[in-house]
Amino acid sequence: MRGATSPDRRSRSTADGSRRDRRLVAECPPVERESACTGCRRRERNGDSLMEAFGKLAPEAWNLGRRDVAEPRPSAGDALVRVAACGICGSDLHAAASDPGFEWISPPVTLGHEFAGVVEAVGPEASGIEAGQHVVATSIQGCLRCDTCRAGTTNLCADRRIVGLSYDGGLAELTVLPAAQLVPLPADLPLRTAALVEPLSVAVRATRVHTRIVPGDRVVVSGPGPIGLFSAQLAARAGAEVVVLGVEQDRSRRLALAERFGLRTATVGEGIDTRVSEALDGPPDGWIEASGAGAALLDALSTVRRGGALTLVALYGGEVAVNPTFAVRRELTFSCSYASVREDYVRAVNLLRRGAIEIDGLADPFPLGRAHDAFEAARSGEVVKPLVVVDDALARGQPVDTNTTAPLA
Ligand SMILES: [Zn+2]
Ligand SMILES: [Zn+2]
């Protein structure tokens, strides 16, 4: 071992006579002092109150876990929101899997953009929002100053940020974000229900802006996840004949749910065009692709009628080989719908408040301590919408004891 440094030469004696590795001493982080109150759940580290959060811990795929982080404080223009419940979305799964298109995320980051909660405090320059208000966040946040934002398409802003990906999100007891990005809720909408506003707003945009439905249109919705089930209900409300398309594994849960919501269903596979035409009494005029599966996109291309339209409202894990000539010769129209803007949220809030959209049986609750299980359940497809209930009493709309002033042990 010529040239190797003897461990002894890097060591030094300490006051108590023991020998420590000097290199390790130099790299040793400051000692963190943690304490916890035995009477309540409050914990402190170096004088900061700690809270529980869940997120992506490192860049590699599926490196998810609990984070104990200091409670955030609102800066000027910010609001501090106590989270009641936060849904897990397909885009969270793409982020967790480090799929192409999600390389820009820099962990550790607390995930979660589909949350509803109560404003606990606001920063000095926050306007339009006050403490005590029930809110949801717009997940994609534009700069609100550029031409794109002024045109109302904040979801397309070149400087857009995404809560729960660009910065810490709602899988936490508390979260801080710009007050201008919050949408106030009516106090009578349970926060557990309001956690579905974001995915519903995505379906609102896909159907309202990007799918021109006229009564009597025949529409296929592929992908019976939350966005697909919402889009199908909205298309039916707009007067379309709708069939929801899934794979065989969707039969027991997702397609059964679609049928409970009053929608017709079919499964993909051999003879899909015939089955769809039979279910709709003719070839589809429109197709809303909400599955993110390349095979569904190819089915749409070959099944929609000549002159028909496709709306893509999914994110794809990879490339899909398509020969555009086939679509050109049939004069198909493509629309792509990405996330949603404030107006879509407001419409989604009103739809949920009026009970105009079926949601019973859609969400499966998990406590924050089991957020990892919620991700696994979403990944395996065994649940439709995992809903992480951070504060059960708040989520159900019951009064909560907000006394956090108990002395620390
Ligand atoms: Zn989402
Ligand atoms: Zn902008």
UniProtKB/TrEMBL annotation:
<dbReference type="Pfam" id="PF08240">
    <property type="entry name" value="ADH_N"/>
</dbReference>
<dbReference type="InterPro" id="IPR020843">
    <property type="entry name" value="ER"/>
</dbReference>
<feature type="domain" description="Enoyl reductase (ER)">
    <location>
        <begin position="55"/>
        <end position="389"/>
    </location>
</feature>
<dbReference type="InterPro" id="IPR036291">
    <property type="entry name" value="NAD(P)-bd_dom_sf"/>
</dbReference>
<feature type="compositionally biased region" description="Basic and acidic residues">
    <location>
        <begin position="7"/>
        <end position="26"/>
    </location>
</feature>
<dbReference type="GO" id="GO:0008270">
    <property type="term" value="F:zinc ion binding"/>
</dbReference>
<comment type="similarity">
    <text>Belongs to the zinc-containing alcohol dehydrogenase family.</text>
</comment>
<dbReference type="InterPro" id="IPR013149">
    <property type="entry name" value="ADH-like_C"/>
</dbReference>
<dbReference type="Pfam" id="PF00107">
    <property type="entry name" value="ADH_zinc_N"/>
</dbReference>
<feature type="region of interest" description="Disordered">
    <location>
        <begin position="1"/>
        <end position="26"/>
    </location>
</feature>
<dbReference type="InterPro" id="IPR050129">
    <property type="entry name" value="Zn_alcohol_dh"/>
</dbReference>
<keyword id="KW-0862">Zinc</keyword>
<keyword id="KW-0479">Metal-binding</keyword>
<dbReference type="GO" id="GO:0016491">
    <property type="term" value="F:oxidoreductase activity"/>
</dbReference>
<protein>
    <recommendedName>
        <fullName>Enoyl reductase (ER) domain-containing protein</fullName>
    </recommendedName>
</protein>
<dbReference type="InterPro" id="IPR011032">
    <property type="entry name" value="GroES-like_sf"/>
</dbReference>
<keyword id="KW-0560">Oxidoreductase</keyword>
<dbReference type="InterPro" id="IPR013154">
    <property type="entry name" value="ADH-like_N"/>
</dbReference>
<dbReference type="InterPro" id="IPR002328">
    <property type="entry name" value="ADH_Zn_CS"/>
</dbReference>
